[in-house]
Amino acid sequence: TLVASQARSDAIEADIGVNPGKYRILTGDRPTGKLHIGHYFGSISNRVRLQNLGVPSMLVVADYQVIYDRDGVGDLQDNVMSGMADYLACGIDPARTTIFTHSSVPALNQLLLPFLSLITVPELNRNPTVKDEMEHSGGRPMSGLMLTFPVHQAADILFCKANLVPVGKDQLPHIEVTRLIARRFDERYGRATPDQPVFPEPDALLSAAPSILGLDGTKMSKSRHNTIQIGMTADETAKLIKKAKTDADRHITYDPQNRPEVSNLVMLTALATGEKPEDVAARIGDGGGGALKKACTEAINEMFAPIRARRLELEADQGYLRQVLHEGNARANEIADATLRDVLAAMNMDY
Ligand code: ATP
Ligand code: MG
Hints:
Bound molecules: adenosine-5'-triphosphate, magnesium ion
Number of helices: 15
Distance between the termini: 42 Å
Mean pLDDT: 95
Structural class: mainly alpha
Largest sheet: 3 strands, parallel
């Protein structure tokens, strides 16, 4: 059904520019660290594109999901505020995208109770994304919160009746859980009105974005300390790229299968300049890893210079960032309260 999901996603992508108002998008990030250029190229730039097409968008800062695999909250509040500066600097517009934190929206979290009744433990145990997260947990016993986090994600998507969720292929099982819960809610507890289910079944919008590798050649990831943060300075960026892993072949080619580290630097350069990766590789040719790193550093620093300048201004105005978050939380609470009323009415709990 990957083929079917892809076809459906392509059809929606073609329609979205024509009928942006038909859709509502939910995306989000866990504030487990500072956002990096993998986030920018992998998801933030796409969110900005969709928002600018006119699609109403919700962006959850998933603070409650930080604790599903950690013993504490870490630099939670720092990460949240840093992420706010990143989002706005990258072009997320709070007038068009509602940014909110999980923990500030009680009615969203209350949806977990009825939703948990609609899924079985064997179904949760089978979820491939949960299995994958487990593999990266270094043998840490799984918390109940991690086991049920696809259900929490369903609450994120359904509380605002989002019908479109931009994801990578690996995230399709989550969307399937959400569709299952929407359908079962309808079958078991009822409808908003006789001809209208309480929840839409959301579609995945499959992203073609490449997975960006970190400077050690494994996936760029907050928790692996191999990232170039959006908010780093040009000097910090240059120092990190200088240390990036490459290989022994001086002739630069774009060959992600056989030369992942070199190809990742080529791809980053291409993403930053708008060139094709093959053209970047040809341009550098026999210049070797040194020339590639120089080109990559210049391209990244040039592309992110205006974003970083805006970001510094935003970070200097914490009051404004907090106000944006408070306004987003207020809007999310209105939406969540209305949805919870529908849910309780459908369940005959509207006393
Ligand atoms: P953690 O280490 O806490 O898992 P992370 O850096 O992997 O953090 P996530 O919060 O797991 O980031 O990722 C959020 C979303 O950002 C992903 O679903 C994906 O769309 C995008 N993303 C993250 N890392 C990359 C990357 N290296 N390349 C492309 N996209 C990425
Ligand atoms: Mg991750």
